[in-house]
Design a protein that fits this description.
Elements (H helix, E strand, L loop, with lengths): L6 E5 L7 E3 H27 L2 H16 L12 H30 L5 H4 L2 H31 L13 H18 L2 H10 L5 H6 L1 H15 L5 H25 L4 H6 L1
Antiparallel strand pairs: 1-2
Helix pairs in contact: 1-3, 2-3, 2-5, 3-5, 3-6, 5-6, 5-10, 7-10, 9-10
Length: about 260
């Protein structure tokens, strides 16, 4: 016995007023994932040579500024090359981010009108910029004080000998997580657009936002230095309030709110 998937009461992103079935939505999702994957593969391919080699050197510079003559050590045969491809993956994500963000927005925005879809490209550009800005903030603001704390054990009997895999893994994780955290305003704006949250409710949660910022800073920051954690927590909290402002901008015409009426 054959069954036909029922329609979903949302117009498709390309055909105004057209009702898509579940199968059609799944097919579109497959297409979005495919294009995002292609963009990621292209980004990794572009970065493997010679960008990754320069990127590794770039990531080591803050440690060399903290400890002149600092060098990473290879303890296992595959340490360097596994690290090399990990950095290539991070660069690939950064290069592919505009396409990935666009595909996500294009898939989740079927309820938007033509006028509202004009926001799509500015959001893609803004989200990509914030991701890069987040990584830059991690590199220039978070990493130096963290390394100053971690590479100086304050004990003359201890000499840090850092493996290339350990160092690069810690640094790239910090950059990637901070880059994603900087996407927070656009996530909040999207949730407000579909009616999940409101700016008034978010503003009322400011105490929880402070707690969230402190906890997230403690998780993201590789050191237990309170000054470094404060440097990280402050922009997280600022991003939260920027997200509230963006939510206020779009919530008056939220998709779910419009459907309820």
């Amino acid at each position: 016995m054959t069954t036909q998937a029922g329609p979903i009461n949302a117009p498709g992103p390309h055909d105004d007023g057209k009702v898509l079935t579940i199968i059609e939505h799944l097919q579109e999702l497959r297409s979005r994932v495919m294009w995002s994957s292609i963009a990621l593969v292209v980004g990794i391919g572009v970065s493997i040579w010679p960008l990754t080699k320069y990127a590794i050197h770039f990531l080591v510079i803050p440690a060399q500024d903290t400890r002149p003559g600092f060098k990473l050590h290879q303890f296992q045969l595959l340490d360097y090359w596994s690290t090399y491809f990990r950095v290539s993956l991070l660069l690939g994500i950064a290069i592919a981010m505009p396409m990935i963000v666009y595909q996500i927005l294009a898939f989740v925005a079927p309820g938007l009108t033509k006028q509202e879809r004009r926001w799509l490209y500015p959001i893609v550009i803004g989200a990509s910029f914030m991701f890069v800005l987040g990584m830059a903030f991690a590199y220039y603001a978070e990493l130096p004080p963290a390394l100053k704390f971690l590479l100086d054990p304050k004990n003359k009997d201890v000499e840090p000998t850092i493996g290339v895999s350990t160092y690069i893994d810690t640094v790239t994780r910090l950059l990637l997580i901070t880059g994603l955290v900087f996407e927070m305003p656009f996530v909040i704006m999207g949730l407000a657009k579909i009616g999940v949250v409101t700016s008034k409710r978010l503003l009322g949660w400011w105490r929880y936002a402070i707690l969230f910022a402190v906890v997230l800073a403690a998780v993201v920051t590789p050191s237990i230095d309170p000054v470094t954690q404060l440097v990280v927590a402050a922009p997280i909290l600022l991003l939260y309030f920027v997200g509230i402002a963006l939510a206020r901008l779009v919530e008056g015409n939220s998709f779910l709110g419009a459907r309820r009426t």
